[in-house]
Amino acid sequence: MGYDIERFVGYVNEGLLCSICRDVLEDPLQAPCEHAFCTACIHGWLVHHSNCPEDRQVIDVSLLRPLYRYMKNDLNRLQLHCRNSEYGCEMVCSLESIDRHERECEYSQIPCSNAGCTVQIERRNLDGHLAVCEYRSRECPNGCGYTILSAEDTQHNCVAELRTELELLRSEMICRVEEAKHEMESRLDSQRRHMVQKESILQNEIEELKSQMSRMMSDVRSLMAAERQHRQELEQAELEKREL
């Protein structure tokens, strides 16, 4: 559906009216035959028909196109009253900016934000209503910290609420202690595995050093034996030399 033509100030060109609802175009689309429609109107029409409602030419959703730019500009420049004029809003603005204004209009009827409250109230009066709304949330006047959400809650049992709160805190503390315990155990297991791994590596290195030391001692003994043999040969050669 389009914008009610009665809201507009001054003359509205016939070409800017929807060919179906006869109101001012809203989110317009244009057929190849150049007749213009509100998007919602023409989509609803084509569910049951396959032609233009004005000249009966065959059209399809895929043939619909945005409005010509000059027509779109003329449409956006039209001046109209806010839809909340019946509640006292006197704003008149262009069609291009009317949606932005109406989203923020102080005269708009909006629901109370308190759960359970069904009151619809003007945006400008919302703060005053929230201050006295029977569904507003507030703390218990006796100091137990309970949040009162409705008139029935004013008769709540403070001792029971405090006991419930204490149990919740105790449960939360137990959960946190368990989480910390599990985290510490996980860290200790990780460190223990790391230490075992390091110990295994060091043990292997020690065994390798022992093996190298053993080979070196064997080489030293071999060298010493070879040296003794060489010395004996030299002594024998010296004796032979003397005898000669």
Automatic annotation (TrEMBL):
Biological process terms in GO annotation: regulation of canonical NF-kappaB signal transduction
InterPro entries assigned = Znf_RING, Znf_RING/FYVE/PHD, Znf_RING_CS, Znf_TRAF
- Keyword Transcription regulation part of the UniProt annotation: no
Domain TRAF-type, chain residue ranges per copy = 101-144
Q: What protein name does the entry list? A: RNF41 ligase
Q: Which GO terms label this protein's molecular function in UniProt?
A: ligase activity; zinc ion binding
Chain coiled-coil ranges: 192-243
Q: Is Zinc-finger set as a keyword in this record?
A: yes
Q: Which PROSITE patterns match?
A: ZF_RING_1, ZF_RING_2, ZF_TRAF
Upper lineage: Eukaryota, Metazoa, Chordata, Craniata, Vertebrata
Q: Keywords of this protein's UniProt record, alphabetized? A: Coiled coil, Ligase, Metal-binding, Zinc, Zinc-finger
Entries under Pfam families matching the protein? zf-C3HC4_2, zf-TRAF
Which parts of the sequence belong to the RING-type domain? 18-56
The lineage's top-level taxon is: Eukaryota
TRAF-type zinc finger locations on the chain: 101-144
